[in-house]
Amino acid sequence: MDFALSEEQQAIFDMARDFGQTRIAPHARDWEAKGTIPKELWTEIAQLGFGGLYVSEDYGGTGLSRLDATLVFEALAMADPAVGSFLSIHNMCGGMIDKFGSDQAKDRWLPDLCSMTKVFSYCLTEPGSGSDAAALRSRAERTDQGLRLNGTKAFISGGGYSDAYIAMVRTGQDGPKGISAVIIEDGTPGLSFGALEDKMGWRAQPTAQVQFDDCVIPAENLLGEEGRGFGYAMAGLDGGRLNIAAGALGGAQSALDQTLAYMGERKAFGKSLDQFQALQFRLAEMETALQSARIFLRQAAWKLDNGAPDATKFCAMAKLYVTDRAFEVANQCLQLHGGYGYLADYGVEKIVRDLRVHQILEGTNEIMRLIVGRAMLAERG
Fold first, then answer.
1. How far is residue 76's CA from residue 33's CA, in Å, rounded to a whole number?
2. pLDDT tens column, 324-341
3. Residue 66 belongs to what H/E stretch?
């Protein structure tokens, strides 16, 4: 088994890391304070080929594997987890359109998505349905004009900021089989947004409710087949979970790198902190945690790329394990900075705040345990 990255994969990682350190990291605190990310950043990212990671080259994408994509998101998160994670959501939308959309839908949406002249958001969660996503109540009814939408989506990254939204709405019976996926462009009458959420982390990323009030869209904005939307959403989440894990890994790695440098400079009791054996042990534990998490994440990505029957289970396990370990490492890094770790100037407290949500979204880590446990019982049978 070969654990090494290919030359091409290493080049992808290096390109994303260098861009992040040059164009994102110096502005991360300012963007967090303003609560937004400049739109021109996305066109720069798209020029690197990161706007349509899963989209075929025929439509302007780069057609990378899921493993390749985790390298991009890990590297960008070393600069700012909030920015890299927002890009992951946009790419999840692109992957759904490329995989499930008609040729007409691909022609219409994907070129702008890949160039990031249109930024996309993903709308599944509702105020009354989080982990129980199949209980969503937003509804689309057919009319002579197309589809009329009514309902509310909650916790939407890019709500009021993005140019288009892929939303899961009910077009039929209760349960997952009555759910379809639709695309709504910004500016559509009846589409509105709640106030920006005041969040613990990911503060650079605008988050708001997305509301549909007799919002009419053309019938051709239905993505794929009617009644298949829940399946589309779940298929997208396998890759999304890998990306969220990769973002957590990149953020934690950045925190550890900063801590290692800090401990070589900070002195106590006549010597630098990195000369205390007890603190060396803690560094060793954190390094081991991140390296094991990295291997696990890449194995899960490899399984998803190769269509392994247990890929969903491994994606859930990777999301659970990597995000938990990453948060623990970032939190330990703050502790090793002492009082300075609590100050915004050092950057570690931001990483801790940003990584906390990685244990919640794309399916909470409690739901990941449920997926893994059920898969184990099914395999036993």
1. 19
2. 999 999 999 999 999 999
3. helix 66-77
